[in-house]
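Q: Entry one of two.
A:
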Amino acid sequence: SVSNIVPESCLLIVVGLLVGGLIKGVGEKPPILNSDIFFLFLLPPIILDAGYFLPLRQFTENLGTILIFAVVGTLWNAFFLGGLMYAVCQLGGPGLNHIGLLANLLFGSIISAVDPVAVLAVFEEIHINELLHILVFGESLLNDAVTVVLYHLFEEFATFEQVTIIDIILGFLSFFVVSLGGVFVGVIYGVITAFTSRFTSHIRVIEPLFVFLYSYMAYLSAELFHLSGIMALIASGVVMRPYVEANISHKSHTTIKYFLKMWSSVSETLIFIFLGVSTVAGHHYWNWTFVISTLLFCLIARVLGVLVLTWFINKFRIVKLTPKDQFIIAYGGLRGAIAFSLCYLLDYKHFGMRDMFLTAIITVIFFTVFVQGMTIRPLVDLLAVKKKQETKRSINEEIHTQFLDHLLTGIEDICGHYGHHHWKDKLNRFNKKYVKKCLIAGERSKEPQLIAFYHKMEMKQAIELVESGGIGKIPSAVSTVSIQNINPKSLPVERILPALSKDKEEEIRKILRNNLQKTRQRLRSYNRHTLVADPYEEAWNQMLLRRQKARQLEQKMNNYLTVPAHKLESPTMSRARIGSDPLAYEPKTDSENLPIITIDPASPQSPESVDLANEEPKGCGGLPPSPEEDEEGLVMQVKEPSSPGTDDVFTPGTGESPSNQRMLRCLSDPGPQPEPEEGEPFIPKGQ
């Protein structure tokens, strides 16, 4: 009931305080947490456990946010806190005047980093959602490089008589060497571990030993060259896990899992107990001004850093960090034993105020672990922050996740935007094509990810089924294959199955494994530079241009062939004209033999060059037209534009079809122009 209110880390520190007080009460000297013991034996198991079982998908999707918090946030905290503490020392009286700027900056770099041990101890108990957990925990893991660089930098600068610009530039470059060098060392040892596990099929007992041995060697190799050992452990755990789990047996996997959990839990317990014992046993120098200022400025720097960085980060994030999330991130910046051990490593010759630094750091650790650690659970419930959902992954979820990844990769390639989905897909293809063949033994190197996940689920559910004590309660997700493997049934006598040899069965399995679940390989990769040109694209462009020209030409022809309107005459003159020649003004009923002008609006000709076709009446040959036909004039035919589904590019010759609409326009009375004389053809022969 007490652990539901007080975090386990607080209870362990209280136990350490009691043990230290008891040892001191009997006249003995309590042991102090030695920095070498802490960094060489207690810290590596916790970091290896965190790196080996790191939720890689959430970590990579939020890597940019984590790096900004870990690098920029830690630098801001270190320099802001160091600068303000230097001002406090200058104004704090004779007891603080001797502390210079470099010593305060060193103190700020030690106390500014969020501690992964304290974060793990508190956040795993409150079951916060995955996003906030990976942001705070990822920051606590990756800020180790910044802390190591600043710590060694200011420690070296304290021995210099004068610090030059070149020293500052080299110190800035050393950050990249420390961080990237640690990652490189971790990747090298991770690959060596995976390659070694390929050949351990005949000695399954020592498989877990290789994982622990190579990981510890990665940490020691990085620390040997003053690189980031934490980054090396994380990199080695992340790199080795997928290949090692594909090679080792299920029993070895279980051994690694539970031994790492047990080892990290023991180390965490010892760290917090030793913190309590060291508080009682250490030499302390209490200065109210320095200690209270340190605690206050730590909180202010953390809140300001989170607010400013989140405002900048939200401009680029799709899932924004809400004010509740920002509060939890700022409130979850716990300090722990790493700061204590780094301060304990300081040399008395150059830092005579080490005892005062240790007192201030222990005060900050106790405040963050006790006050913030005890109140964060009620605050999470009060603010209704989303909790972690304990759900098992399913095949359906895995299929949809891979489908969305594939879809987003295609969309990024089509848009020409090379985002993290694009590079993730490139890395997966390279991994599947080259790396898996070298690091994974047997046919499992060619096994699709979905099939491997299905096999893992089947094994897990089969073990749970056996441990439950029978087949009475069968989970719905367990297939009949796994049930038959657990409790095989005797086949009916009347059913005769063809006997297959082991070689034949293995050959069939190999054929199925090589030919199924390979739809992605058959698809062409999305790339806007290698898209095949559409053969109809040129024709469609020509069709659109012709349609546009047709509309323009039709509009011009309508304007060009419009018959001018007659001048208005008086009714008396109109009746006299009709009475003098009634046949001239009688409407023509027979228009079969009229000369026809065929106009093709899609042709590039101008309105002035109109094709005149069938100008002579039918059946007359070379004879001159009769007066009746001459009086009837010409018929002009406009070519009908094609329907939306067809065009001249694909269906030529539609203008000669009899279904085309004909526009008849009588030009027998062109207005005020003189009439042609009797017997003279409207269009002279020979033109």
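Q: Entry two of two.
A:
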Amino acid sequence: QEKSCRLSAALLGEDSEISQDQLFELLKYAALGKGHNAAQPSWCHIYHQSHLAGVVVVVLHEMSQLHFYRYYLQFKHLRKVFRHRFTLTPSANFPVSLYGEGTNLKPQNIPQGLTSTSSECITKSSDLQCDPIIRRYGEKKQGLTSYTLTLEEQKENDYPIEGSPGCKGYISTECDQRRTDSSPLFGLDCEMCLTAKGNEVTRVSLVDAQGQCLLNELVKPESTVVNYRTRFSGITKKMLLPVKTTLSDIQTRLKKMLPHDAVLVGHSLNSDLQALEMIHPSVIDTSLLFARSEGRRFKLKFLAKAVLGKEIQCEQKLGHDPTEDARAALELAQFFIEQGPTKVAELNLEMLLTAEKLAEVPQNKAALQPQGCGFQEQLKEPPPLSKPCFLDCLQVTGQKPLLLGRQGLDSSGLCQSNLSTSNKQILQRALEDVPLSKFSIIQFSLGPEYMTSHLQAGLYEKVRSKLTDMLTIYAGPFEEDFCMKSVKKEFGKCGPIQSLTVVTETFQPYVCIQYKVLEAAQLAVESLNGAEVAGSCIKVQRPVTAAMLDCNVLIKELELDVENEGVIYVAGVKKSFTETDLQKEFSQLKDLETLFLPKDLQSGKHRNCCFLKFQKSQSAVDALEAINGWTIKGSELRSRKALAPGHLWRWIWQMNHSNGKQGKHIFYERMEQLSDSEQDLRKKVKNLDHHIKKLYRSLQNNTLCVVLFPGVNSTHGSQSGLGLMGIKDDEGRSAC
């Protein structure tokens, strides 16, 4: 029986923003799999990738997350079918970021000889004989055993060796040297702190050949730490305080994890094994594998970018991520083994490194360089360092991706087709051609008349205004001398409050409360309307505006949204509670899968609410009944079904904190333009949803489908994108 593919992604939290590189990571693995050095993406997991029938990417040109939630009711198919959604980092030119610069696609397929800009750096074959990689390994591809270090090489490079004077007390992994070309590879990396003893390991990561993390553990050093080296290690004093794991514990675990013929891969792996005080006979050191002349070595960060097209050890991160480094070293070794020395030498890494360094030199400093140097003249116009484009990666399999779209959608010339091509014609072509292709990119558009900066700004204002109204409630009337503190306390039980003000335009006082999450506002309307608060029987309602007339319909649809299935919102959680506290309190709830305690994105503190995700919808319903009325440490809990998917929280927060600097006359002018075309736009969006529904229904089972609202990143402003993804199952829905 054919295995069905599944997709899982832990995207419940506020930080579910996916970069272009992470999206590339998913598509590469889905299309290529392990057989072509592609690793499981770090942010989601595809089960049984080899059984995927194909990959279809639908790009909704110049549309953003804004469009999805403005026309939420019109996107009926999208919101009911795709279980996984994520915020997508916008780019100035999304097609170029996906396909790679310099790519020139024909309407139906990719021509032979497709290359990215980095391919211009390929060295002539006559020059390859001088390359250190060719001199060391020859030109022919070989198995992994040809790239493991010999005993002599290990001694020369300060690897711990059995019986060596400096390795007294070191623990052997007890693996033997009977390795073969099919022996399993494992990536290893450690982070060290400086102690009174010297370099001691404080974090260890081990990944398997698929890039899956098997071990990522903090380690308590034996001696007093002299320097945490936080800038590089990412380790702080606070992180190590609760740690009980010792070096001995790690040594024991590694011995159990590694099979007898395991080959460890790392970058300058000798340092890691010395810190671990362990001896292992079979190693591949990527700092030596990618050989340079005169004993120099490439840095891991550079190799990851130049060879794999991956950014690691980013400056904005605090310290290095050992799992990321271990995975990068592993993938570099796999690339070298799979492609062979000649292909690696053709990358001309020395030239790329020089080009990168020159690119970092400010122009005024570059002008001061001495003239007439032959080597500098050769590099007068160094080729840019760019990652191989996604379609280059597909080329190694012989696959010919299908690309359908309109001409003139972008300046890169990636979508060349008939100027008169409409969405309907693109759909018709897709229905005919997608079944014949393993990888397809279909690009739809609302049309340039709906993509002007004025209309985009007007759309933003409408969505922001409606969201604000949905987060706002009015409560009253109250007595003239009512206690504001009592009102704030009662309404605070429903969730985090953004602002609370007294309305003075009315005969009796009312209070306007704006919440930070949709669930809190809805819970207040449902639980406090008609209740007695601060000595008055009050009415609780949302603002009455034309845009809010369909609010109840929208709330109902949000409740039924497939992404909110099995998720409930719980208010009344004390800010002093930790996730561990709540896990303990809620442990008796059946089928609880995930607990998420959101933070305020400005202060970083926990909010007074949490979200619970259950494996079964009925378990979520049962939990709602059980939780309402619960008291935890004197705090009464209130709960309801979730409304806003996880990726929306950050967006709502940004909406709440937008400064709204645009002049009112411009705002009303844009509103007027938008109103004139609103009805037509709704119709177009509905048709677009119908096109995607028709295309989706035509796909084979086990097809990965990714729908992208790429977002907007221009001089007029930035709007986050949105991704929806799933693998089609027998029932026509996305398998989770």
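A: Comment on entry two: The first strand starts at residue 6 and ends at 9. Residues 100-126, 363-387, 407-420, 659-676 have pLDDT under 50 and may be disordered.
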